[in-house]
């Protein structure tokens, strides 16, 4: 098959297209919710300080939120805000009926206790899926809001009709944000999941066993062609800024020659994260309004 | 090597001996805590109804608790207790400074909402490690009380100096009680973990890759000799009552011929569960008393 990149080899998974579909679905859902209940979902993004990358991310989230027809209930706090005041703001948002979802933009200024702040966010408004309560609901297979990036990976796989039931999936990287929750989501979808990390004895050999490899280790081009079985599916969660531009955890060129499907960087998993944040906010609102 | 069972083959892992060591450690820790703080740990076992197996389990837990020098703060509730009253009893125990740990014996009578009751137990007294909060703390790698059976499996492996760092471990069975939390505990110990289940395509082939296989599927003799690489470690969490006596998820005789280590049923993982419950209660008390 000829891929959009022009090489013989893998189908290149189009994250922008999938993300656009999710956003359209959310916009329709939001419109229906407003029609049914007279209430409009609201997303409170909380930005503390002036980290330039965080400013860009939050701006993109707010724009996407408004484009989906949701209220943009942004809160900015200065870099020197005290833990106490930051907690009070989160408590206020937790109690506010106009707020369906709360997103605390990370990283935080160093003097703040990240975990203590995250844990002020009630599970039903935790649209990033990062609190202890949300992690516990996922671990126990109960209803809850799932972390956005792992949820985006699943959606990409589903949009390309990749079978997961009984499939061998290798997840590379055991982070709280991606690897660990993704392994659990995939297990719940009946995949046989192996979770690899920096201590894994033979990473390439382990990955070669897989029908699907998800690279989320945070190491540029960690996954080479020797780690990929011909025809398998490779999803790249990594994103690294280098002299030549952006790259992922996968060595795209050689891997695309062997894989059956591959997600590029940029334009693969990246666009899904905000899309799934919107989907989580709409879901939280539906439960909140009883719609 | 000649095993205690007299066959050439595996070293048979002695769960009774490991459990006895854990109990002795707990008894020493409790004595030290009483000496340091003047307070004595207390375990509240809550038994609802008259399930004969549950009565035996609770009696054994209470006996072990007293033998370790802890207060036995047992509560019995009749089988027809209302959800409301059961929740009130748990709330009372949660607020009681004499109670270090709360164990709600499962299964419950059918009219009761198990999850709603478990979630009344605060994480710091959740000595069974089964609440959403405890599951979330485990998933995020934060301090907390871990489920007893998975913790017992780890202790057995440690007592036999089985290396976990970089080891390939296959866990068979994805239950909330054992398989899922055990996979996470093993990942935290730097093992490369594969979590298998009823949808796994080729269970025997997957298990043969492992340095350590933990069978926790709840299927008698599921793991045969064809699933075991010579010299590997096999831990059996299953327990099934059959005409000929007890058996596990592992076909003991043939597997013992190939494995390097094997845990028997009974006398393997079983005795560890109560021992780890005591260890959790002592740990909860130490945090409670600030000792």
Automatic annotation (TrEMBL), chains A, B:
Pathway: One-carbon metabolism; tetrahydrofolate interconversion. NADP(+) binds at residues 173-175, 239. PROSITE patterns: THF_DHG_CYH_2. Signal peptide: none annotated. One of its GO terms (biological process) is methionine biosynthetic process. GO terms for cellular component: cytosol. The keyword Signal does not apply. Keywords: Amino-acid biosynthesis, Histidine biosynthesis, Hydrolase, Methionine biosynthesis, Multifunctional enzyme, NADP, One-carbon metabolism, Oxidoreductase, Purine biosynthesis. Residues 13-128 form the Tetrahydrofolate dehydrogenase/cyclohydrolase catalytic domain. Transmembrane segments: none annotated. It catalyses: (6R)-5,10-methylene-5,6,7,8-tetrahydrofolate + NADP(+) = (6R)-5,10-methenyltetrahydrofolate + NADPH; (6R)-5,10-methenyltetrahydrofolate + H2O = (6R)-10-formyltetrahydrofolate + H(+). GO terms for molecular function: methenyltetrahydrofolate cyclohydrolase activity; methylenetetrahydrofolate dehydrogenase (NADP+) activity. Its EC number is 1.5.1.5, 3.5.4.9. Pfam families: THF_DHG_CYH (PF00763), THF_DHG_CYH_C (PF02882). InterPro entries: Aminoacid_DH-like_N_sf, NAD(P)-bd_dom_sf, THF_DH/CycHdrlase, THF_DH/CycHdrlase_cat_dom, THF_DH/CycHdrlase_CS, THF_DH/CycHdrlase_NAD-bd_dom. Residues 147-288 form the Tetrahydrofolate dehydrogenase/cyclohydrolase NAD(P)-binding domain. Catalyzes the oxidation of 5,10-methylenetetrahydrofolate to 5,10-methenyltetrahydrofolate and then the hydrolysis of 5,10-methenyltetrahydrofolate to 10-formyltetrahydrofolate. Homodimer. PANTHER family: C-1-TETRAHYDROFOLATE SYNTHASE, CYTOPLASMIC (PTHR48099:SF5), C-1-TETRAHYDROFOLATE SYNTHASE, CYTOPLASMIC-RELATED (PTHR48099). Belongs to the tetrahydrofolate dehydrogenase/cyclohydrolase family. This is Bifunctional protein FolD. The gene is folD_1.
